[in-house]
Design brief:
This protein is of the alpha/beta class. The protein contains 6 helices and 5 strands; from the N terminus they run βαβααβαβααβ. Strands 3-2-1-4-5 form a 5-stranded parallel sheet, sandwiched between helices.
Length: 153
Amino acid sequence: MDDSEPFTVDTVLAPVDGSDESATALECAVAVADRYDASVHALFVLGRGVVQGMNAGAVDEDTIAADTQGFFDDLSHVADDANVPFVTAVDDGFSQTRKTRHPGNVVLDTADEIDADFIVLPREPVTDAASAEVLEKVAEYVLAYASQPVLSV
C-alpha cells in the first residue's frame, strides 16, 4: 500500500499572451482545475515590444488593458461553464532595467507568489508574429526550473 499523500491542486497558473495557443492552454488549465476542484489564475504576459512601446509612450496603456481584458472576457465562459473560480492578472514580461526579468522568470515568480500547485502553458511556438516573442520559449524554461508540476500543451 502506498503511504504517500494524495496529489492535490488548489491553484492552477495559466500564463497567456493572447495567442490561440495560449487560449488552448487556458482551456486545459480550466480542465485541470475542474478535475481537482481548484481555481485558475490566468496571467497575461506582455511582450517586449508592448512593454518598450508603453515605456516610450508609443503604445497606449488603455488599449493594451482593453485588449488583455477582451482576451480574458472571450475565455471566461470556459471557467464559468465548468464552475471554476477564475482570476486574471497582467504583468510585463520584460524590463529595460532588469536583465533577469523575462517571461520565464515572470511565470515562475508569479507561481511562487500565488502559491500555484500546477502550471499549464503553451508548448508550440505561437503563430501570431506580434506575440511570438512572449511565450515561445517559456515552456522550456518553466519545465526546467518550476518546482510545480507543469503541463505544456
